[in-house]
Design goal:
By secondary structure, this protein is an alpha+beta fold. Helices cover about 15% and strands about 45% of the residues.
Length: about 80
């Protein structure tokens, strides 16, 4: 699945909030249009994590999933 979105990033204490602005490829999402919430990125125990209500609604039957982002430069 391939989608392109323009996001706005807002620093919020120890996280980065990702806010949906618009679709760049014509993809329509009622969830993003309603909430504009693309999720948040944060550091937990030295690991970068991502939570996304958009992905939860669209791909996991509304089950909350936290994604570990892989840092290929870490050792």
């Amino acid at each position: 699945l391939y989608q392109k979105f323009l996001l706005k990033v807002v620093e919020n204490n120890n996280s980065l909030d990702l806010q949906y602005q618009e679709s760049l490829d014509g993809t329509n999402s009622w969830a993003l249009a309603k909430t504009h919430d693309f999720g948040k990125l944060y550091l937990k125990d030295g690991k970068y994590m991502w939570e996304s209500p958009f992905l939860d609604i669209s791909y996991t039957n509304n089950q909350k999933v936290t994604y570990l982002l892989n840092n290929k430069n870490s050792r």
